[in-house]
Specification:
The protein has helices at about 1-50, 60-65, 65-95, 100-135, 145-170, 175-200, 205-230. The chain is mainly α.
């Protein structure tokens, strides 16, 4: 009788433990989905706002408004960190669903976002100092050294590449519009941020136009990304 009762109690303990573990996993996934949704809704539009508010890029204007230049770049860097958090959450949600190629794509987009974060931090700290002592050098090829060149080159390769790969991945899973907005926006913004800036010079307004033209769809793409991965049923496989 005693051994029968013990076996029965042990079985009951095991049965009750499974739902607790299951509900704990569900709660964790729900929190990650909520985090992805929130960071996407904040990171995308906040990024667009900082791009729109970007001050003039020539050295004399930067020297005259150094604090505002540093502030807008600090805010843009924060928005990129929020986006990186969103991508990390997406990675956590699909870790057991996507194959190695899909995970590599997400890691590339995450690395590109962090590299662009580094570029923005470098830009916001370096250029106001240069503008104070040598304003004519700001945003010209004469002001690029090896250390800064490494950051700029790496960011301009990995950032657009990561979002193009992410666009292809999302298209494969039925999220064509989201992928198109992120891929197109990421590439156009990157072109405006560096190639256009050095091509047309810091006095040209073309850089701002191209950056905003890329940042707008990119920001909307993040909002849609958050909606996709923020719900229980995420992607059609």
């Amino acid at each position: 009788m005693s051994s029968h009762r013990s076996a029965h109690e042990g079985a009951g303990t095991t049965t009750s433990a499974r739902p607790l573990h299951h509900h704990g996993a569900e709660d964790g996934t729900r929190y990650v989905r909520a985090m992805v949704r929130l960071t996407a809704m904040i990171g995308g539009p906040f990024f667009l706002l900082t791009v729109v508010l970007h001050p003039a890029r020539d050295g004399h204007d930067i020297a005259a408004g150094a604090q505002w230049y540093a502030f807008t770049h600090s805010m843009e860097a924060i928005s990129l960190l929020i986006q990186a958090t969103c991508l990390a959450g997406v990675l956590a949600l699909v870790m057991n669903r996507f194959g190695p190629r899909g995970l590599t794509t997400l890691y590339t987009a995450l690395a590109g976002t962090m590299l662009w974060f580094g570029l923005i931090v470098f830009d916001g700290g370096h250029n106001p100092v240069t503008a104070k002592y040598a304003p004519d050098l700001v945003h010209t090829s004469k002001d690029i050294d090896i250390e800064g060149g490494i950051i700029v080159l790496a960011a301009n390769i990995v950032f657009p590449l990561g979002y193009v790969l992410l666009a292809l991945l999302l298209n494969r899973y039925g999220q064509r519009l989201t992928g198109l907005l992120l891929g197109f926006g990421g590439v156009v913004y990157a072109i405006g941020g560096t190639a256009s800036l050095f091509g047309f010079g810091p006095h040209s307004m073309i850089t701002s136009v191209i950056e905003i033209a890329g940042a707008a769809p990119y920001a909307l793409g993040y909002v849609l990304l958050g909606r996709t991965f923020g719900r229980a049923r995420q992607l059609s496989t």
